[in-house]
Amino acid sequence: MNINQEQLIIFKTVIETGSFSAAARTLGKVPSAVSMSIANLEIDLNLSLFSRAGREPIPTPQAITLYEKTEQLLIEMNQWKQHAFALSEGLESALNIVVVSEILHIQWTDYISLLEKEFPDLQINIFSAPQEDALNMLLNQTAQLAMMFEREQLESREQFVELKREVLVPVAALHTELATFKQVRYEQILQNRQIVVASRDRSLKPELLFSKKYWRTDNNLSACTMIIEGLGWGILPLDMLNQNPHIHQQLKILDFLDFSPKFEYFIDLVWSRESELGAAARFLIDHIRNSRKKLK
């Protein structure tokens, strides 16, 4: 059986127009070519698709059943062709994006929706990991793109474009001792357990670590839950609190008396200079760059 796309189009058009001659006019073919194509299709399928007893061909029940599936099959064939063409033009077979777990609350899905509209057949895989792990995924090419906090020291292999600014705040549960102070001294911070969002790799020292005693977790949600339970104080994104009033109502933002730590960061889209980026990754990078130009 060797059925091609043109045969399916002719079959579909004959049923929709009601005759071989009308289908021929619609498709810009001679009637004999349409008739021959249908005859060959019937031979390939070993089915009678049309009754030719009257002036016009009448679809058989088998033809009606096949017609119901033909349009979807033609759509899938066109999608297959378009995807094959996109691959030949440099579209990656899959795009792996890692979103740092500390920033999962931001509207990162807007960028994924943009990619889906531009490349509807692209396989997109989203991973979540702490900052240090996300960078390792990028550099070992497990992921092609990463959304992560700015780094004080850049790896020579990484390149980035800024996405947005993020503010972090130190917080403690309202029922804890730290929350009773108008201002918190440095020695109080040192002696109280801190809940830190950090890499799963215990050999890596967490960023934004101030306390001598600390517990670590790999995402903001679990950190927030532990802080609310009074198991320690921690540093959370302000947007996370603002977007969740029920969380905000259970926490107090701490005011440090003795020092002003840097709790304002930029979120970057990061990639490796060593990776051969595909069309979708390059499209997203260019979109963000162009958006930044419009803001300036």
TrEMBL record:
Keyword line: DNA-binding, Transcription, Transcription regulation
InterPro entries in UniProt: LysR_HTH_N, LysR_subst-bd, WH-like_DNA-bd_sf, WH_DNA-bd_sf
Segments traversing the membrane: none
Positions of the HTH lysR-type domain: 1-60
Gene3D superfamilies assigned to the protein according to its UniProt record, in alphabetical order: 3.40.190.290, Winged helix-like DNA-binding domain superfamily/Winged helix DNA-binding domain
Family classification: Belongs to the LysR transcriptional regulatory family.
Annotated PANTHER family: HTH-TYPE TRANSCRIPTIONAL REGULATOR, LYSR FAMILY TRANSCRIPTIONAL REGULATOR
Protein known as: LysR family transcriptional regulator
Originating organism: Acinetobacter albensis
